[in-house]
Amino acid sequence: MATGVTQWHAGPNSTDLGGNSGWSFTSCSGPNVWPGDVNYDLTANNLDILYLGLAFGETGPVRPGASNNWVAQPMTDWLSYFNNGVDKKNADCDGSGLVDLADTLAVDLNYGQTHPARFANPENSLSVIDPSLILNATPDSIPASAHVLVNIDLGTNSIPVDSIYGIAFTVFYDALIVDEDSITFDFSNSILGTVGTDMIGYVKPFPGQIDFAIVRTNHANVLNGIGHLAAFDVVIVDNISTSTNSQLRLGNVTALTYGEYMLSINTVDDTLFIRPFTEMQFIDNKNFFNVYPNPSHNMLNIYSPNSLIIAYELYDVTGKIVVREFLNGSHATVDVSSLQNGMYNLKCITQSGTLRKKIEVCRD
């Protein structure tokens, strides 16, 4: 057995609460694999994605009769271990003999499931610095029905993360404020890598919370890890009648290096200030709001120098949305070249409220 591997505390007549009897072995994870519980902490969750990244590319024997079902599946040890003593056979969730992206499916299918097997938990070393995981919503002062981009960043120039391999965490939000069907996720430009190349980006949404896991797969830490990790977009519901504050909060943070040292991470939350839905009249002047040319032949410009444009929608005479775009800026260019000639209704959501105007498309 490898030095430092945590051992089971069991005698020859002991019974594993997971259904095994009369066993004795050196791997702390036992003779069975529970598909989705990669780190064998008795639960399938986003932490298991981190350990998939640690074992990514490992190979071993194929598991006989393997499935992704949440049952104890007997399997001989691969004799390759995580630092906590768990045999890496547990990372081969689907039993194919290779740890790869396909193994994330078992985590997702069995997310939140638990099993009763018990073993002694190892002690983990912590980092000596406490960098921050930061939520940053843009904009953070918005009207109802607005679109919000939430960036998730790690570290600062004064307190960086000197090395990191993966991180798991939960974002909590007010389910009464956010349109949950609107949430989208983006792992591009992450400091930890590129999804499908050298990184896994995983999310598991629930009402009022989103579980994240972001982990590398190339067995090498990112050094001086400062910057963007991921982002998600939300749309605020449109039936808010009074101004309110809504907090976006971080929790359940676990970060580690490839050597499986646990990092101590602070969290920095953010608060959205949401105002009730307000209808405003368009003022066609360059000091506040301008839509031109109108009639429009090919391109329609929307200009709002004093109030940030969050989104716009273009409706035909039947009320059908024919163009929709989310943005955060003072100027938008709308391609109307594919639209039929006729009248349309423009709805523009800004930080100051929702504005409407009739426009005409005419290419003759």
Helix vs. strand class:
mainly beta
C-alpha end-to-end distance: 82 Å
CATH architecture of the largest domain: Sandwich
Question: How many individual β-strands?
Answer: 24
Strand content: 35-45%
CATH class of the largest domain: Mainly Beta
Overall domain count: 3
Question: What global shape is seen?
Answer: elongated
- The SSE order reads EHEHEEEEEEEEEEEEEEEEEEEEEE
What's the rounded overall pLDDT mean?
82
Describe the structure in your own words.
There is one protein chain. With about 375 residues, this protein is mainly β. The protein folds into 3 domains: about 1-125, no CATH class; about 130-275, Immunoglobulin-like, CATH 2.60.40; about 280-360, Immunoglobulin-like, CATH 2.60.40.3080. It has 2 helices and 24 strands. The strands form 6 sheets. Strands 4, 7, 9, 10, 13, 14 and 16 form a 7-stranded mixed beta sheet that branches. It has a 5-stranded mixed beta sheet with strand order 8-12-5-3-15, with no helix packed on it. The chain has a 5-stranded mixed beta sheet with strand order 17-24-23-20-21, with no helix packed on it. It is elongated, with a radius of gyration of 26 Å. The protein starts with about 30 loop residues before the first strand and ends with a strand.
Keywords:
5-stranded mixed sheet; 4% helix; 364 residues; 24 strands; Immunoglobulin-like; 7-stranded mixed sheet; elongated; disordered N terminus; mainly beta; single chain; 3 domains
